[in-house]
Every structure is written in C-alpha cells, then in structure tokens.
UniProtKB/TrEMBL annotation, chain B:
GO terms for biological process: transmembrane transport. InterPro entries: MetI-like, MetI-like_sf. GO terms for cellular component: plasma membrane. The lineage of its organism: Bacteria, Pseudomonadati, Pseudomonadota, Alphaproteobacteria, Rhodospirillales. It is found in: Cell membrane. The keyword Membrane applies. Keywords: Membrane, Transmembrane, Transmembrane helix, Transport. Gene3D superfamilies: MetI-like. Residues 88-280 form the ABC transmembrane type-1 domain. The chain crosses the membrane at residues 20-41, 87-111, 123-144, 156-179, 200-221, 263-285. This is Sugar ABC transporter permease. It holds the Pfam family BPD_transp_1. Belongs to the binding-protein-dependent transport system permease family. It is a multi-pass membrane protein.
C-alpha cells in the first residue's frame, strides 16, 4: 500500500498531488495527533468538567462549583488514601533509590557473573504488579508464609502479620514495590556509572583518596540527573499505583491501605459517584503535574545550558 | 569503570575482605529478588497437603503439574469455571494488534516530526509527549462512556483501541528520539534522487530502524500484557484480559483455597513477558531507559 501511494505521488505535476506531496508529513501526523487531542486533552477536559457537577450514576452538566472537591477532602477514605500515598511514596522512592544505587555501585566493581546478577535484579520489572502482589501475598500471609517458616525453624515467637495488621499493611506494599522496581533503578545508575570518566577516578585514587570518598565526592554528584530521573519515575509509579494494592491487600484491612487510584476506581465504577470520582482523578493529575512540570522545566533548562 | 584492582597497591588482606563483603552483599540481594520466584514455582508444583504441612522454602517431594493443568483448564474465575485459557487468548488477541498498530503509527509520526519538519512540529511533539505523564484515572470515565457509545465496551477491539491510543505517546517518543539522530543529509540526497515521503521511509528509515523497533515492541508488549487498570475498568466476565482474570481467580473465595493453583496461574500470566525478558533483556533495559523520558 505504501509503494502504491509513493507511485501516485511521483508523476505529480497536477496541483492536487503537488499539494499532497507538500503536506504529506502533516497528513501522516494528523491521525496520531487527532487521537491524542481527542482521547487525552478532550477526555481530561470532560473529566475536569464532570468534577464540577453533581453527577452520580450518569453525567449531568449543570455547574456546581467546587462541591465535589469539598466533599472529597471531607471524606475519611480519601484522606487515608492521600496519607497512604505520602507514606508509601516516600518510603518506596527512598528505599528503591538507595538500594538501586548501592547495587549499581557494587555491580560496577568488576564482579564475576555480572550479567547473571543483573538479570536476576531486573526481572521483576518485566512482570505485572498483579503477579507481584499475588506472589507477595502468599509469602507474607501469616498462616503459611514467612511467619510459619521462621517458627518451623525454631523461632517460636516470631510474628510477622503486617498483611493483616491495619497499622502495618501499608509497609507490605513498600516491600513488594521495592522488590519490583529497585532493579530498574539499578539499571539506570549502572548505565550512568559506565559513562563516568575513569581517568578522573584513577587520578583521585593516585592522590590517595579512598574508594568511598571517590564515590561520595566525585562520582555521585555527577549522577544528579539520574537521581532526578529516578525520583521522577518512581513518584509517577507511586501516584499511579493501583494494581499492586488490589492484588496484595485489596485495600484492606478495612480501607487502611487504599491509594487515590483505588478510591477513584471505587467511586467511579462501584458506587456510582462519578462526579466524586472525577474530582479525585483531577487531584491525582494535579499531584503528578506538580512533579512533572518542575522536572521538565529543569531538564529543558539543563539542555539549553549544556 | 572503577577498575581499581589494576592500580598500584597490590592485594592486601584488607582488600580481599572488602571483596568478600561485596560478594556477600550481591548474593543476599540476588536471593531477595530470586526467592519469590522460586517459592511461587515450588508452591505451584506441590499438592495441597504438602503445602499445609511443609514450609515456604521446602521443595516439592515430586514434580506435579496438576495445579498448572487445573489453573489453565478448570479453575473458577467468578462464576465460570473455565480456567485461565480463554482469558489468556483474550490477552494475546488484544496485545498483538495493539502493539503492531501503535508501533507503526509511532514510527510514521516520529519520522514525519523529524525528517519532514513543518511549522509547529515541535509543539505537536510536546503535546503528544504530555500523554506519557497523565495518570490514566483522568481518562477512565469518558473512555468507558465512549466505548459504550461505539458499541465496543467489554470487547477485545475496545481494549485494542485503548491501548493503541495511550501507547502512542511512548512509541512516538521512542521513534522521534531515534530518528532525530539520523543525519538529514541522507534524506536530502534521497529527495534529490526523486524519492518521495513513503519511499524514503520504506527504503531508508526502516532499514535503519530494527533496534528501535525491537525496543518499542518489547516496551509496548510488556506494558499492554501487564495492564490491569484498563482491563478492570472496561471489561467484565468473558471479555477480561488475563491479568484481571488472575486477580479474580486468586480472590474467588468459594470452595477450598488452592494455593498451588493460584501460584501456577500467576506463573502462566507472567510467562510471556518473562520469556521476552530472558530472550531480549538487553533491549528491554534500553526501552526502560528510553521510556524514562530522557530526550
């Protein structure tokens, strides 16, 4: 089909095919751009509008101001969800970055079997959060999981019931999410470490600097962009986390581990509160944008300067 | 990089100790990542008695694939007891067209935006790129309505449409950033020789593209196969993709809890992306770094 179209354009000379040839790039971009305009911008606008109405099961279009937003922030589950996002997000991001960075540095010391280790560290990134959640739910379940394993090894008083403890369940999400994502952070850091100029390091070493000092003072500061990228990607993952919660804790016990995405889903598809669902979705968009915009801004500025 | 063993100073006992510590650390974390997989695999091969009487780490006394057969053919998902099989094929039927179409559109768009630059091309790229950043919750509700309106709600074609649309920002990003580094002189020379837009794409760009095509296909394949949010929002019953069916299977509470079946089902669901990862891990990593939006 493509060669057919090319052939059509080659004889040319007529005004129509001339016009076609001059505008072919725009014509090719048009479907993609049209889809994005409609399904991204149009849909965000629609959700934004619905968030200002009293829509319940079906959308209504009479403007009601911030009614849903006020209602949203008065609801305990939403506040729990935002609190969970803060606790889960900060721990997840911090641990994943520290662990990923540490593993990258360790792997960068000319170790044997580096390829195998890298593969092992990174494979969880290839599987779905639903599978991660299912696997960790099995491992962490108090009846037959780690708790009973430790007890069978003779540590009778060992207790590890975070999964069913509403105070601690949110930390099981951190364990599973770190397991899934830290290998990815490791891969980003390793790629960057491979790009560091080894002459500088040798010089510093010959000057008598210790290995840990070389890393802390010379290498890590040059990796600032990687830290920023990781921070940004992991934040994005945290705000969007939905499936891991569904599979690992189901939001429970009670609603102690729900996240904003789960709240949105529940309101929109289960409780017929689509106005409220739309308002919570817009809050999530605002959260992501609060992080994306400064990030993109700093990226663009760096490029101009560099 | 930090090849300090080659430097003067020699191997002191202190250095060997550090080396030992390093390997210990690496192996402990290797265990952290690999043990869940081993536990899941060994649980899926045990029978229920063995699971109840043994521990997490005890290996199956004999290899027994019953749970796998049960998960594939018989397990109950909601009220229908068909196993994962039909849902697995739903996922296949959804993933293949969505990956191919979004990759092709991404390649054509990336090509147009870099090699046939027109006024506003950069703005259009920035506007498409924005789609990478949105939390999909902001489009769920209108999408559910639109799918109903188009009469493709709860169907595989409906999910294909959703995945094409929301995969496009990523595929455009990948191809655009790849093509931007291909010298414009190639295109100029071809244009002087009389080649048109599609001829250049077909004869010059595509032969240069295999690496980015592989990266994009792997990225899209993993994203779409692993999706849960869209599947859970837009499908019910028989139209569900395998990730949603897996979650329902695990959370179906009627009857005896068959942990071995749950674990076998999880592995069946994970198998396609794991196989791709093992076969093409290098490209997988490249996709992840490219998808991390540096560009």
């Amino acid at each position: 089909m493509m060669s057919l179209m090319t052939q059509k354009t080659i004889p040319a000379k007529q005004p129509l095919s001339d016009w076609f040839r001059r505008n072919v790039a725009k014509l090719v971009v048009a479907p993609t751009f049209g889809l994005i305009i409609f399904f991204v911008y149009g849909f965000i606008a629609w959700t934004g509008y619905v968030s200002f109405t009293k829509s319940k099961m079906l959308p209504t279009y009479s403007f009601e101001g911030f009614y849903q937003y006020i209602r949203l922030w008065k609801m305990t589950p939403w506040n729990v969800a935002m609190e969970n996002l803060l606790v889960f997000g900060s721990l997840f991001i911090l641990i994943a970055i520290v662990l990923g960075c540490l593993l990258a540095i360790a792997l960068d010391q000319k170790v044997r079997a580096e390829g195998v280790l890298r593969t092992v560290y990174l494979y969880p990134m290839a599987i779905s959060f639903i599978i991660t959640g299912t696997a960790w739910k099995w491992i962490l379940n108090p009846g037959l999981g780690i708790q009973s394993l430790m007890q069978s090894w003779g540590w009778e008083s060992f207790a590890f019931d975070w999964l069913i403890n509403s105070e601690m369940a949110v930390y099981t999400l951190v364990i599973a999410a770190v397991w899934q994502s830290s290998g990815f952070v490791m891969a980003l850091f390793l790629a960057a470490l491979r790009g560091v100029d080894s002459e500088i390091i040798k010089a510093a070493y010959l000057d008598g600097a210790s290995l840990s000092r070389i890393y802390l003072v010379i290498i890590l500061p040059t990796l600032r962009p990687v830290f920023l990228s990781c921070f940004f990607i992991l934040t994005h993952m945290a705000v969007k986390s939905f499936d891991l919660v569904v599979a690992l804790t189901g939001g429970g016990p009670g609603y102690s581990t729900i996240m904003p995405a789960n709240f949105m889903y529940e309101m929109t598809f289960r409780r017929n509160q689509i106005g409220l669902g739309a308002a919570s979705a817009m809050m999530m968009l605002a959260t992501v944008m609060a992080i994306v915009i400064p990030y993109l801004y700093s990226e663009l500025r760096e490029k101009k300067n560099g | 990089m930090a090849d300090l063993s080659a430097l003067p100073g020699g191997k002191s006992p202190w250095q060997s100790a550090a080396r030992f510590g390093l390997y210990t650390l690496l192996l402990i974390f290797a265990a952290y990542y690999i043990l869940p997989l081993i536990v899941v695999l060994s649980t899926s091969l045990k029978d229920l008695d063995e699971i109840r009487n043994g521990t997490l780490l005890s290996l199956p006394s004999e290899i027994n694939f019953d749970a796998w057969g049960y998960a594939w053919n018989e397990a109950c998902i909601g009220v229908s007891c068909t196993g994962l099989k039909p849902y697995f094929w739903n996922s296949v039927a959804m993933t293949i067209p969505a990956v191919l179409i979004s990759t092709l559109l991404g390649a054509l768009t990336g090509y147009s935006l870099t090699k046939f630059k027109f006024k506003g091309a950069n703005l259009i790229f920035a506007m498409i790129l924005f789609g990478c950043f949105i939390p999909f919750q902001v489009v769920l509700l209108p999408m559910a309505q639109s799918l109903g309106y188009l009469r493709i709600a709860n169907t595989v074609p409906g999910l294909v449409l959703v995945h094409i649309v929301y995969g496009l920002p990523f595929t455009v990003l990948f191809f655009r950033n790849y093509y931007v580094n291909i010298p414009d002189d190639l295109i100029k020379a071809a244009t002087i020789d009389g080649a048109g837009f599609f001829m250049i794409f077909w004869r010059i760009m595509l032969p240069l593209s295999p690496p980015i095509i592989v990266v994009t296909i792997i990225w899209q394949f993993t994203q779409i196969w692993n999706d849960f949010l869209f599947g859970a929002s837009f499908t019910t019953g028989g139209g569900q993709p395998v990730t949603v069916a897996l979650n329902n299977l695990v959370n179906t509470t009627t009857g005896v809890k068959r942990y071995n079946v749950d674990m076998a089902a999880a592995l069946i669901t994970a198998a396609p992306t794991l196989v791709v990862y093992v076969l093409a891990g290098r490209y997988f990593v490249r996709g992840l770094t490219a998808g991390s939006v540096k560009g």
